[in-house]
Design brief:
It is built from eight helices and no strands. It has about 200 residues and is an all-alpha fold. Helix 2 runs antiparallel to helix 3, helix 4 packs antiparallel against helix 5 and helix 5 packs antiparallel against helix 7. It is flat, with a radius of gyration of 24 Å. The chain starts with 10 loop residues before the first helix and ends with a helix.
């Protein structure tokens, strides 16, 4: 008795092959561009000057592209990897400028803090039994916390830190988000929730 062939979707495999070819092509372009930039810079200046800035930026972009093409599946590894690339890029830019003036007090804590907030946000979203509007609410909370982090380290770097001032002003931004989340969760009717959810594809 003849059996029907097993159904299979060839699209993911085909898409993966296309992405692999594009990534290899981009990698070759990056290699040629970096080599050419180094060569031109050395021929003009007899040293590597401006090419260091451009090439480290190009390589950082290539690294982020690697994660964007889906070669790493885990979100935690993706956000950590992109954070490390940003750290290397910012370290190089500051170091090539003649020293580490702003990397340690400014770039390092902001990038690490952003990475941690991103990982915590993803962990909270995955742990939710019911997502929907909660995803948006926690996203705004994460943005506010990130704003507080950036504001703190920038003002401290400028030696203008007033902890009470920035905590109150930035912390008050959380209040509308919390109120909206409570209203949607406990006050808004189920029919309205479903309409809004369909509208925003939640």
């Amino acid at each position: 008795m003849r059996k029907f062939p097993k159904a299979a979707n060839p699209y993911p495999a085909h898409l993966r092959r296309v992405l692999n070819r594009i990534f290899v092509f981009v990698t070759l372009l990056v290699f040629v561009a970096v080599s050419l930039i180094f060569y031109i810079d050395y021929e003009l200046n007899q040293a590597f000057t401006w090419s260091r800035y451009s090439n480290i930026s190009i390589l950082a972009g290539w690294g982020i592209l690697y994660f964007s093409f889906g070669y790493v599946r885990s979100f935690y590894k993706v956000i950590t990897g992109i954070g490390m690339i940003c750290l290397v890029l910012l370290f190089g830019l500051d170091f090539f400028n003649g020293g580490l003036a702003w990397f340690v007090p400014l770039a390092l804590p902001i990038v690490i803090g952003t990475t941690v907030i991103g990982i915590v946000y993803w962990s909270v979203i995955r742990a939710l039994s019911v997502r929907g509007f909660n995803v948006i609410g926690f996203f705004f909370i994460a943005v506010v916390l990130l704003s507080m982090l950036v504001n703190f380290f920038i003002t401290r770097y400028q030696e203008e830190t007033d902890p009470l001032n920035w905590i109150i002003i930035t912390g008050l931004q959380l209040l509308p988000v919390v109120v909206i989340m409570i209203y949607v969760k406990y006050v808004l009717g189920e029919r309205t929730k479903r309409k809004i959810a369909r509208k925003f594809h939640l």
